[in-house]
């Protein structure tokens, strides 16, 4: 039996590719040694965001008296970690069943086993060898191992903790590090961030990075630099001050997870090197998602997977790089799309920034979520929007409007002319579009 496509890895790149391949009539086999849904569904995106929602709910309950809700004993309020895990597991199980249903519906076969690529047309799994016309590697990435601490926990093992640490040390870099620190802070723990380097999130605009650093300081979450710190007996010593910790969580920058192979693929910085169509250095073998190192976001992985299916069918992706949102699920959320201010400066483009605060938005004030703003970066000749950044509750949802606008090469005039319902948070787009 020969398949049109064998996919190794069932994360956001793998499972999306399998569904789309089945929908277009490709005979498809997907192989994963452990999880349906990969890291994102089982211990990354979905679980961490579900835990965060539990923590944010606790924050809302604390503020209930301000909204006229009486009878809540705030002194008795506590975080039920086992219940939060139980709810998260239920969410994951529901999504996993959904993926398996769509595979079955579209004729996709699945094997839970470790795969080995024997050749560009042969894959071994479950003690069998399968023939295929194409292979998609979608095995993702993991936080890089670290050697600073003897006892260190990865996110994959986070939910297995019988109880949460009271003074966790969050080590690494990126959005996950900040999200975890805020999670612990919201439930009443005393987290400490030990960052590899600054900025904390190098892919964000400087304005968003500045906001989150000020927010962490306001929330009394220490941010320590590894190069300026000494580790000693459950303690971080930073500029003469001691910061105790009882558990280390590793959220270091990720490294590619490569499948076993009897062939040689060209790598770049440890990731599979691919071209614009996600083709590897070996004919017939593609790579999408984290394993190619081109982006570390689930939605980008899924978009790349869709392009792989099109490439197999002879449809090349657009020549220009596609815009994609970058989301951070902090409190409040951060989101951006398009160019950052420094990138616009590097291109030598004349530009302006229109910034509008949530403190002037009626819905935000009514909800008690007025911390934040929108920044619209646009070039001065035609007012085409080049980048948008949002700090707001649900910023990760609001950013999609900017994505559509920029896909259509929209301008600030388009924003100002588009009628937005009142009262809504989305009115900030219309207000930010009213420029001279």
Write up what this structure looks like.
The chain has 436 residues and is an alpha/beta fold. Helices cover 32% and strands 25% of the residues. α1 packs parallel to α7 and α3 (45-62) crosses α4 (81-105). The longest helix is centred in the first third of the chain and has 25 residues, at 81-105. The protein is globular. The mean pLDDT is 95.
Gist?
The chain is an alpha/beta fold and 436 residues long. The protein contains 12 helices and 27 strands.
pLDDT < 50 runs, ≥5 residues = none
What best-fitting shape do the alpha-carbon axes yield?
globular
**What fraction strand?**
15-25%
How many beta-strand elements?
27
Mean pLDDT: 95
Counting copies of identical and different chains, the oligomeric state is single chain
N-to-C CA distance: 65 Å
CATH class of the largest domain: Alpha Beta
């Amino acid at each position: 039996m020969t398949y049109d496509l064998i996919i190794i890895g069932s994360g956001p790149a793998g499972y999306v590719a399998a569904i789309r391949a089945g929908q277009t009539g490709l005979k498809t086999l997907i192989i994963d040694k452990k999880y349906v849904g990969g890291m994102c569904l089982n211990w990354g995106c979905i679980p961490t965001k579900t835990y965060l929602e539990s923590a944010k709910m606790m924050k809302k309950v604390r503020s209930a008296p301000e909204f006229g809700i009486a009878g809540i004993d705030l002194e008795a309020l506590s975080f039920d970690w086992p219940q939060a895990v139980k709810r998260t597991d239920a969410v994951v199980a529901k999504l996993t069943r959904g993926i398996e249903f769509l595979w079955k519906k579209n004729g996709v076969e699945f094997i839970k086993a470790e795969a080995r690529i024997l050749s560009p047309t042969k894959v071994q799994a479950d003690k069998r060898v399968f023939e295929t016309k194409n292979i998609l590697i979608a095995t993702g990435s993991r936080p890089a191992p670290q050697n600073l601490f003897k006892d260190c926990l990865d996110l994959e093992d986070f939910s297995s903790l019988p109880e949460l640490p009271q003074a966790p040390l969050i080590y690494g870099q990126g959005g996950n590090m900040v999200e975890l620190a805020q999670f612990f802070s919201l439930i009443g723990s005393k987290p400490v961030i030990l960052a590899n380097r600054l900025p904390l999130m190098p892919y964000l605009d400087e304005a968003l990075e500045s906001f989150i650093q000020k927010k962490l300081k306001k929330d009394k979450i220490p941010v320590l630099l590894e190069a300026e710190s000494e580790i000693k007996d459950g303690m971080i010593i930073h500029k003469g001050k001691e910061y105790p910790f009882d558990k280390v969580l590793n959220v270091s920058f990720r490294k590619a997870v490569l499948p076993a192979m009897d062939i040689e693929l060209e790598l770049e910085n440890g990731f599979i090197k691919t071209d614009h169509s996600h083709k590897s250095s070996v004919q017939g073998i593609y790579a999408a998602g984290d394993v190619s190192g081109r982006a570390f976001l689930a939605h980008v992985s899924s978009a790349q997977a869709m392009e792989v299916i099109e490439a197999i069918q002879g449809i090349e992706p657009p020549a220009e790089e596609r815009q994609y949102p970058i989301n951070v699920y902090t409190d409040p959320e951060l989101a951006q799309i398009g160019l950052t201010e420094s990138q616009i400066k590097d291109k030598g483009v004349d530009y302006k920034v229109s910034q509008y605060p949530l403190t002037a938005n009626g819905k935000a004030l009514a909800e008690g979520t007025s911390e934040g703003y929108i920044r619209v970066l646009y070039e001065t000749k035609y007012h085409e929007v080049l980048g948008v950044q949002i700090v707001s509750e649900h910023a990760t949802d609001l950013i999609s409007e900017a994505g559509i606008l920029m896909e259509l090469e929209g301008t600030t005039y388009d924003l100002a002319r588009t009628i937005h319902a009142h009262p809504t948070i989305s009115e900030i787009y219309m207000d930010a579009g009213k420029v001279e």
